[in-house]
Amino acid sequence: MKKFFICLVAMMAAICSYGQNEKTYEVDEFRTKNGKSVRFHALVHASIRIEYDGKEIEVDPVSKLGNKTVDYSVMPKADVIFVTHEHGDHFDKEAIGLLNDKKTQVVTNQRCADMLGYGKVMKNGDKLELTEDFSVEAVPAYNITEGRTQFHPKGRDNGYIITLDGLRIYIAGDTEDVPEMENVKDIDVAFLPCNQPYTMTTEQLVRAAKVVKPKVLFPYHYGRTDVSGIPEQLKSEGIDVRIRHYE
To answer: Which of 50, 117, 119, 184 would suit a FRET pair with 239, their CA atoms being 20 to 30 Å apart?
Structure first.
């Protein structure tokens, strides 16, 4: 595990607004090994906005989920958009279109690239260097429990390990605690899903966290699942668990 210091700017999540009368979102800020700021905006469910060194990074942008909405028209255009898979709580053509301009790179799996008609396709195991200090690896995300494998079959969808100036961020996508997590190493910030039967139970998430051993963990994609007990279950592991509005 790398030893460089990751700094949380405030003990509580900061509040950031995108314009007058627009919604506010919880923000957690970290520092990379060279002191660059990385800010995570908790938009909704599996949708994350990341600010890094003047770059805008969006993960699974979705404009509407149940009675929750995100207005991407008031947000900056994205430099990079990561899409994990095709389900409607992760893949939204309209949201991608609102964030997209001539400089935007859309990184996704084959199915979503086919549905969009464009995009940089990554398969499990592929690596991509976007800039000198910004790289990504696509990792497996799938179901393993009998009766669930049809939701996310092995080999189709992606999780991503994003590295920003040495800060390693694991965005697991829709997955259970698959054996390949043993290969996910040196993670500073992890986003692990919890929403049975589609992703993990709370017990599976705790097991996955003990395998991955991130410094900071955000349970996400949790819908109505009660994740309030997870911080206490991982306290002895030294993992800083932060519950944000990723219902």
So the answer is: 50
